Amino acid sequence: MTYKVAYATGSRADYGIVRRFLGYLQHDKDIHLDILVTGSLLEKEYGKSYTLIEEDGFHINCKIPLTLNSISNAYIIKSMAIALEKFGDYFEENQYDLLIILGDRYEMLSVAIAAAMNKIPILHIHGGEITLGNYDEFIRHSITKMSHYHFTSTEEYRNRVIQLGENPQNVFNIGAMGSENCKNIDIQNVSNEIINLPIKKYFVVLFHPETLTDISPIHQIDILLDAIEIYINQYQFIFIGSNADTGSAQIREAIKTFVDMHESARYFENLHPDAYHYLVKNSIALIGNSSSGIIEAPTLETYTINIGDRQKGRVRGESIFDIDCQKEFIISAIDKVCKLKTRIFTNPYYQENSSHLAYIHLKKILELKTDIKEFYDLK
């Protein structure tokens, strides 16, 4: 019997995390894998990075553009409405034995609703986590409640998914596949431009908006850039494009203006996951508020200067330095990581062979699949 499985992806992050996992599925003769692409992966403004999926040898079966506009929540909601309508139509015509969704993107909430309404079982990856500074927080838990099966990244998160009413038999702690990916950088996916880029010691900067706080994203990025400017002649700073959350356009424009003014600053809208990991691995630290700073950087043995509340609530290792978005705190953190001599890295998200473990569990799910989903009450 051949099982029809789909993976829906809307951003470079949720694709990059599962590349190895998808490879296992694609090479399984009993699984027919469809890749469904939407969101920023299809947008010119965000680098049309769906090509990274094709370069990795995967065939994209469905492209659903959303005409993203991150100026305000009103535009984000319109994009969600488009996604709900179009994926509703798609799933009405295309039935799957299992749909895989990762994380907490707003477009993935629409995909989950459309699939659930069409009685397609959902496997949710990275549920149970907490990020108190972003609307990803309630989106993640909502997707959990629509999903039949769950791959969590720590045992604490597994327990939280069960606390949300999910059957423990359907919740598996496999670690974070993104953390495992860091151990397997393929240098062929790292261009000579990236390899030859650093002319001196450098930092990688990846900063996203906080969408559940009252702090202006332009105010935060101005503070960060003011702090970085103090070091611009001493170090190189490599900026990566922000995601498609509300306010990201303001962050992007401020960074591009800054980069145009300084020879020691570079900007990349998107990079292959291996190229990104290569840059972070060889940097002094990752500065910003990306989940990759919490989940992936420790495996790369790189420090993280985590700014603000976007990642507040996540489990983290000792190499993460949490600071408020204030100029003096950013300066102090940069000085600190530059002077550190003893390097201690622990990663609560890392499990060896995480992607293969996910594949083994998925095979069992397909073989023992049940369409029944009931609320599980804690005893």
Question: Would you mind describing this structure in some detail?
Answer:
With 379 residues, the protein is of the alpha/beta class. The chain contains 15 helices and 13 strands. A seven-stranded parallel sheet has the order 3-2-1-4-5-6-7, sandwiched between helices. A six-stranded parallel sheet has the order 10-9-8-11-12-13, sandwiched between helices. α2 (19-26) packs across α15 (354-367) and α10 (217-229) crosses α14. The longest helix is centred in the N-terminal third of the chain and has 21 residues, at 73-93. The model has no long low-confidence stretch (mean pLDDT 93).
SSE topology:
Layout lengths: L2 E7 L2 H5 L2 H8 L4 E8 L11 H6 L4 E5 L8 H21 L4 E5 L3 H12 L4 E4 L10 H11 L2 E4 L2 H9 L7 E3 L3 H5 L10 H4 L6 E5 L10 H13 L6 E5 L7 H14 L3 E4 L4 H9 L3 E4 L2 H5 L7 E5 L12 E4 L3 H13 L14 H14 L12
Parallel strand pairs: 1-2, 1-4, 2-3, 4-5, 5-6, 6-7, 8-9, 8-11, 9-10, 11-12, 12-13
Short description:
With 379 residues, this protein is of the alpha/beta class.
Estimate percent helicity: 25-40%
Radius of gyration: 20 Å
SS class:
alpha/beta
Q: Shape from CA axes?
A: globular
Q: Write the element-wise H/E pattern from the N-terminal end onward.
A: EHHEHEHEHEHEHEHHEHEHEHEHEEHH
Proportion of β residues?
15-25%
Which stretches are poorly predicted, pLDDT < 50 over at least 5 residues? none
Major sheet: 7 strands, parallel
Give me the number of helical elements: 15
What kind of oligomer do you see? single chain
Strand order of the largest sheet: 3-2-1-4-5-6-7
Number of strands: 13
What does the average pLDDT come to?
93
Span of the ends, CA to CA: 38 Å
